């Protein structure tokens, strides 16, 4: 029986492209879901085997819906990371492809996609209203269903092809290094083969109260061991103003002697540590490897 991959849909979204790049469609079933919490909850309930969700974009930063749901709502390990290049396309219905830029009334897309193109949009379509949708795919569908409206959408090339839309601009993002980091989640930590050159461990660190310099002590534990950290972020504990925990990504597997020693040292000063996952990391160049 084919394993079922849940991803942030609908069909034609960037998450769909990333999921199919990492998990070949001829070897896996792919199930689009409405929201990031829906994907994570589906994995938790067992209705899908694996979930693919965005966690960070090189331009817009962390996807807080993913981080908060993983930390506060479920206890699921991250089993892989996948870096996927994002190319935002400006698309229009064929009947509107020759509409002058100053006549475009609405630009539709997911908030993240619009944010990644904000400078381009202000220069090219300064008069157009920005309309936020649940996904880039939904925006493409709305434009496809509205041939008489001077509207355009921002989204993936696949969404344009599926909805028979014309691509007016294939690289509308404001920065060329537009890459999104996706993570794969599962109930089973051993789901993924560990044949990657890069391995990473994600930690949730909660500092002890009334301990001046605790964060410095935590970072020093990594520093003197020369453990490279690729991500550090504070997130609210949701227990009151000023209460935060830290999310830290380290470039070592959790079983490595240096990282094990680091975790023990941090716990010794009274910090609570939760391992969110220890996993291989892949890039788009290694697509469809599984």
TrEMBL record:
Start and end residues of each Prephenate dehydratase domain: 4-187
Superkingdom assignment: Bacteria
Single GO term (MF): prephenate dehydratase activity
Segments forming domain ACT: 203-280
Alphabetized InterPro entries for the sequence: ACT-like_dom_sf (IPR045865), ACT_dom (IPR002912), Chor_mutase/pphenate_deHydtase (IPR008242), Preph_deHydtase (IPR001086)
EC number, UniProt record: 4.2.1.51
UniProt pathway annotation: Amino-acid biosynthesis; L-phenylalanine biosynthesis; phenylpyruvate from prephenate: step 1/1
SUPFAM superfamilies for the chain: ACT-like, Periplasmic binding protein-like II
Reaction equation(s) it catalyzes: prephenate + H(+) = 3-phenylpyruvate + CO2 + H2O
Annotated keywords: Amino-acid biosynthesis, Aromatic amino acid biosynthesis, Lyase, Phenylalanine biosynthesis
Enzyme category, top tier: lyase
TM segment ranges: none
One GO CC annotation: cytoplasm
Residues marked Essential for prephenate dehydratase activity (site): 180
A GO BP entry: L-phenylalanine biosynthetic process
Pfam entry (one): PDT
Protein name: Prephenate dehydratase
């Amino acid at each position: 029986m084919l394993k079922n991959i849940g991803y942030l849909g609908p069909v034609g979204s960037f998450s769909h492209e990333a999921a199919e790049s990492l998990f070949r469609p001829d070897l896996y079933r792919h199930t689009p879901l409405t929201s990031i919490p829906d994907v994570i909850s589906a994995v938790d309930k067992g209705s899908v085997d694996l979930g693919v969700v965005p966690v960070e974009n090189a331009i817009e930063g962390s996807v807080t819906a993913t981080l908060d749901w993983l930390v506060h709502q479920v206890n699921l390990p991250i089993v892989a990371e996948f870096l996927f290049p994002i190319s935002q396309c400006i698309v229009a219905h064929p009947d509107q492809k020759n509409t002058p830029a100053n006549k475009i009334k609405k630009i539709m897309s997911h908030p993240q996609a619009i944010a990644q193109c904000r400078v381009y949009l202000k220069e090219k379509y300064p008069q157009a209203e920005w309309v936020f949708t649940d996904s880039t795919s939904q925006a493409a569908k709305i434009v496809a269903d509205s041939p008489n409206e001077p509207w355009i959408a921002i989204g993936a090339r696949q969404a344009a092809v599926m909805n028979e839309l014309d691509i007016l601009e294939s690289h509308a993002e404001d920065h060329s290094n537009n890459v999104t980091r996706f993570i794969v989640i599962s109930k089973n930590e051993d789901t993924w083969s560990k044949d990657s050159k890069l391995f990473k461990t994600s930690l949730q660190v909660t500092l002890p109260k009334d301990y001046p310099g605790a964060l410095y002590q935590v970072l020093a534990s990594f520093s003197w061991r020369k453990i490279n950290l690729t991500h550090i972020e504070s997130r609210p504990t949701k227990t009151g103003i000023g209460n935060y925990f830290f999310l830290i990504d380290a470039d070592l597997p959790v079983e490595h002697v240096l990282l094990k020693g680091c975790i023990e040292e941090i716990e010794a000063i009274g910090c609570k540590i939760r391992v969110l996952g220890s996993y291989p990391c892949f890039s788009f160049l290694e697509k469809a490897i599984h």
